[in-house]
Amino acid sequence: MGITRRQFMRVSAAGLAASTVGALGFGDAGDALAAGVRPFKLERATETRNACPYCAVSCGVLIYSLGDRSKNARSEVIHVEGDPDHPVNRGTLCPRGAAVLDFVRSPNRLKYPMHRKAGSDKFERVSWDFAMDRIARLMKDDRDKNFVAKNRDGVTVNRWVSTGFFGTSSQSNEAGYLTYKLARATGILGLENQARI
Ligand code: SF4
User: What sign does the CA torsion over 52, 58, 61, 63 have?
Assistant: First the structure.
């Protein structure tokens, strides 16, 4: 029979309480107590797996949220804990990762692409389409201007050193592979990653 982690927690809590009282000789009191045990507090929450965003260790986290869009209730993250099935951290989190809920709720958290126009002193929110087009345009223009196919000795080098690329440790191996392929295919040499530990 398959059993989820939540069902296991609920059954364990009820079973422990009942067997303890039973062992003390109170007979049926154990069953009554088990029936009164509160349900696991995250039972109704939606569980989402992700990686802690803070550092290159990339510990696995379980994010619990409550809410239902179909009922017009905005979904909110209510709890975050280490993922016991994650091979990196096995359920543990350092103090920074354990406080990631504050990061999720921080009013200073950057949630959208921001753009500062030339000459402006402030950033303004822009769409993802605008941001992607803008980045692609600037990269293309810069590459057309600065790409070096051969060095002064006539040796083919195909390099583009006036633009750099920065990857994140919070992506999967596959996304990291694609990041590397994209940067190297364009000739970028300055490829750095947060995960360089
Ligand atoms: S929990 Fe701590 S060690 Fe793990 S990724 Fe987050 S900041 Fe790094």
Answer: positive
